[in-house]
Amino acid sequence: MFRLTATCLIATCLLLTACGNETETVVQNPKDTSSPTVDTTANSNETEDTDQVNNPDKSKPSEASSSQTAREENSDTMQNADAESTQAEIPKMYHMNENYFIKPNDDSLEKKVVLLTFDDGPKEEDMINQLIDTLDKHDAKAIFFVNGYRVQNNPDLLKLIHERGQIIGNHAWDHEDLKKMSNADAVRQVESVQDIVKETIGITPQFFRPPFGSGNDALKAVVDKNDMLYMTWSNGSLDWDKSVKDRPDKVIQNVLDQLNPGSNILMHELPWTVEALDELLIKLKEKGYSFVDPRSIELKVR
Ligand SMILES: [Zn+2]
């Protein structure tokens, strides 16, 4: 892995030197949902994941995605058929704009919606169950953006999220900056997660969020080729930030401070977020907001 990483870094440097025009990434400033800023430093907002670096069980994406045969054998499972029929029954009533806000397709639909998302799992059964208990209480669906190495370590937790009716998104295999990788490595980071999720629950994710919100046009093309909608977020709860650790009240306040119709809310599988969720959803409802079903969102930006 380290040798591979070193090779990739060298290859990336050579590539960047040769091209000299790496595409800038538009990353939403969590403090200002109305005007996204152009970010050229990559790691602007999301820096929460530290234990991943030292994870001894982490393997290369290429090792995890070796079983094309297994994927094909899984394709006819009842689970797959059920999941696909469920997706087919949800009309596409919303779309995402270029600033990652969720917008209704016509004026008859509710504008005051939010998209709920939880990144960097699956980690712990208790936290996942508590999050989904709260989502169920409010009849809400969310996207759980998972890392491939965590799915490999905890396949049963991915099944739990899926079987409890929540939506799985792709958050790359490792929690690393894809913009700093070669294109080939970035492809593996994306497609290996499609593979392991398909092997585990019989369906492939339809949503992709890059770690740290860091990507470029090449990455977007890979995501598009894999039939996923690329998104970062438009409302950062800052629950990954030190200032919010053990402070569920701050998670709630940060979201409410940035609330706008169509807010795409970034949260994480973290204890203080688990604790905050019920009150947050109550407050959002009090303000007239409802929770958009991710499956009702078109997979093209417009
Ligand atoms: Zn993340």
From TrEMBL:
GO terms for biological process: carbohydrate metabolic process. This is Peptidoglycan/xylan/chitin deacetylase (PgdA/CDA1 family). It holds the Pfam family Polysacc_deac_1. Keywords: Hydrolase, Metal-binding, Signal. The lineage of its organism: Bacteria, Bacillati, Bacillota, Bacilli, Bacillales. GO terms for cellular component: membrane. Residues 26-45, 52-69, 76-88 have a biased composition (Polar residues). It comes from Paenibacillus amylolyticus. PANTHER family: CHITIN DEACETYLASE 1-RELATED, GLYCOSYL TRANSFERASE-RELATED. Residues 1-18 form the signal peptide.
